[in-house]
């Protein structure tokens, strides 16, 4: 078997392509996984960001503010008076009221819709135009 044996070089090329593409494929998988993780982080950050309008603590001027839920402290600089403001977000949890048997019938609905002052039923808004 000499160095110019065509069968030897065919074998090297044949099996070499599998080895080469195995590592190439591993690299591609790792790259795409890293890109996916990066996109997931960006997406989660985008979900947690909320734009709202808040009044400045000093001059009460309304400012558009980006609030990041995952951050414990958010802040903004007032557009009008240029004072720095801190925004603290809190969450309160309450037990949800459950209706017995989970069904609201018309009778129960009528009892629920009562006038705050008189205790009588609030009349339904008429669909007909009054003459
Ligand atoms: Zn201000």
Structural class: alpha+beta
Task: Label the overall shape.
Answer: elongated
Oligomer: single chain
Query: Could you give the count of β-strands?
Result: 4
Contiguous low-pLDDT stretches (5 residues minimum) are none
N-to-C order of helices and strands:
HEEEEH
Describe the protein.
By secondary structure, the chain is an alpha+beta fold. The chain is about 40% helix and about 20% strand. It is built from two helices and four strands. About 0% of the residues are buried. The model has no long low-confidence stretch (mean pLDDT about 85). Zinc ion binds near residues 56, 58, 61, 81 and 83.
What descriptors fit this protein?
binds zinc ion; 131 residues; alpha+beta; single chain; two-stranded antiparallel sheet; 38% helix; 2 helices; two-stranded antiparallel ribbon
Structure described in brief:
The protein has 131 residues and is of the alpha+beta class. It has helices at residues 6-48, 106-112; strands spanning 49-55, 62-68, 73-77, 84-88.
What order do the helices and strands come in, and which of them pair?
Layout: H1 6-48, E1 49-55, E2 62-68, E3 73-77, E4 84-88, H2 106-112
Antiparallel strand pairs: 1-2, 3-4
This protein binds zinc ion.
Zinc ion binds next to loops.
